[in-house]
Write a structure and sequence with these properties.
This protein is of the alpha+beta class and about 475 residues long. It contains 15 helices and 20 strands.
């Protein structure tokens, strides 16, 4: 259940109480609710979910639209192909995503967690399967309390079947980003071999990872759920650093709601000293992380808006004004105004915009060609009979384009540098070609023992595809 740590009360140390570092309250039974924020989640989450599932099935130039081909070290993203040399772009993209998340958090709190985080999206899908098979909250509680019978077996069995089906689709889709999903799915279709045994034509590694992610999805969204948000997710722990008093988050209007309590229809509850909160606990019953928002802002809150929709329904039934629980800021509750233009938000927004523009420029001007030049340290500088000085180099040309190219190499510097022992060769798509070349220059043109020269590689088919590399030319001392 967790480790108990003693906490001494502030009464001289005579009494000691125990606080649990981790304590699971058991299964959280959530109530079904509809409303504005649930429609927002549906309209924003469904396209992202469909994009995740369908993207591996789209084909571009005879390959999946998005395929991370690890054996070939190619990363196909729509019409572009990236290589391990482009790893800096991936790091850059992750930094942009992190700063975007910080910016959104400063403005509207943890809406990423509540609306688009995979843990939340898949958990809500599994909760939907629960409601579909077992009914709403009260029916699920009643079903768990009753003994095992045919109805319970059928309802529980159908729920776990749907869970496993969603988890399997998730696992095979995720692995489909690393291996062609059509072949992967066909490999899981059983067939009877010549020996009479049922066989599967799927690579063992692909099968392992598919089943692994199937099991992890089933465990996370089906069993762990709010425990991931409470105890595993690091984002919940450092969100308070990004929050300020003007951050929009789910808040309970204590001044309007207290004192809470039930009341009769048409009762003058104001005269009785009661607020608008009727203490129905719907806000707690719909919460997927099992907290009471009326106790104030808590790190477990994922800003999903379920409690807002639930409270608004109760307010409508009671004939009260909506917004007892709403997205607002601490400044709005205390002073009646939220300040959207503030230095922290402006700084984050400017940094994100600058990085996005720079990233677009780098990707847009990226060349599908790289060159690496290494001077052969094992070969000494020498002078040939006609008075020229030569150095030997190894040139590596990486054709990162999707079609073959014939590349031409030239060399330039402070002198008449020329290439020897080289002829243009066609390099296939994705090939890294290595060739030795000799660079020659008249000795009288060397002004020092070290000179800087530049190798330039240009595609004969497309002059716009070019790459350059500088290196050092070694000559005799003057």
């Amino acid at each position: 259940m967790g480790e108990k740590i003693p906490v001494t009360e502030d009464n001289g140390g005579d009494n000691v109480r125990y606080r649990m570092l981790y304590d699971s309250a058991g299964r959280v039974y959530t109530r079904k609710v509809s409303g504005f924020f649930q429609r927002v989640r549906r309209y924003t989450g469904l396209p992202l979910l469909l994009g995740f599932v369908l993207m591996p099935w789209f084909m571009i130039d005879g390959r999946p639209a998005m395929l991370f081909d690890l054996p070939e070290r190619k990363f196909h993203i729509l019409w572009m192909t990236f290589w391990p040399q482009d790893g800096m772009l991936l790091a850059w993209l992750l930094i942009i995503a992190a700063f975007t998340l910080f910016t959104v958090t400063v403005l509207v709190g943890r809406v990423w967690c509540g609306f688009t985080c995979p843990q939340t999206v898949w958990t809500l899908m599994f909760i939907w399967a629960e409601h579909f098979c077992e009914g709403d909250r009260n029916k699920m509680i009643k079903l768990d309390k009753q003994g095992w019978n045919t109805e319970k077996i059928l309802r529980k069995g159908s729920k776990h079947f749907l869970w496993l089906l969603i988890a399997f689709v998730t696992g095979i889709t995720f692995v489909g980003y690393f291996t062609p999903v059509r072949e992967l799915l066909l490999g899981f279709i059983p067939s009877v071999g010549s020996s009479g045994f049922v066989t599967f034509d799927v690579h063992p590694a692909a099968a392992f990872w598919t089943l692994f992610f199937t099991g992890m999805t089933y465990m996370n969204a089906g069993w762990l759920r709010e425990q991931v948000c409470k105890y595993m997710c690091p984002y919940a722990r450092f969100q308070s650093v990004m929050y300020d008093t003007d951050t929009l988050a789910v808040h309970y209007d204590r001044e309007r709601g207290e004192a809470r309590g039930p009341r009769k229809a048409h009762e003058d509850y104001k005269a009785a000293g009661k607020g608008d909160c009727i203490d129905c606990s719907w806000c707690v019953q719909v919460c997927p992380v099992d907290i009471d928002i009326r106790e104030g802002l808590q790190y477990e809150c994922i800003n999903c808006g379920l409690c807002v929709d639930a409270c608004n329904q109760v307010m409508d039934k009671m004939g009260y004004e909506r917004g007892l629980i709403r997205f607002t800021s601490e400044d709005q509750l205390a002073n009646g105004a939220t300040h959207f233009l503030r230095p922290r938000l402006f700084g984050y927004s400017f940094a994100v915009l600058a990085m996005i523009l720079a990233f677009i420029y780098v990707v847009g001007t990226r060349q599908p060609l790289s060159v690496d030049v290494i001077r052969d340290r094992g070969a000494n500088m020498y002078r040939i009979t006609n008075g020229n000085v030569q150095n030997v180099y190894t040139v590596k040309i990486n054709n990162m384009d999707e079609r073959p190219h014939t590349y031409d190499i030239s060399v330039s510097g402070d002198g008449d540098f020329t290439l020897r022992g080289y002829r243009a060769l066609q390099i296939e798509a994705g090939e890294v070609f290595t060739l030795p070349v000799r660079v020659s220059v008249p000795r009288e043109q060397l002004t020092s023992s070290k000179s800087t020269i530049r190798f330039t590689v240009v595609s004969s088919e497309d002059a716009g595809i070019t790459a350059e590399e500088e290196t050092t030319f070694i000559g005799p001392s003057r």
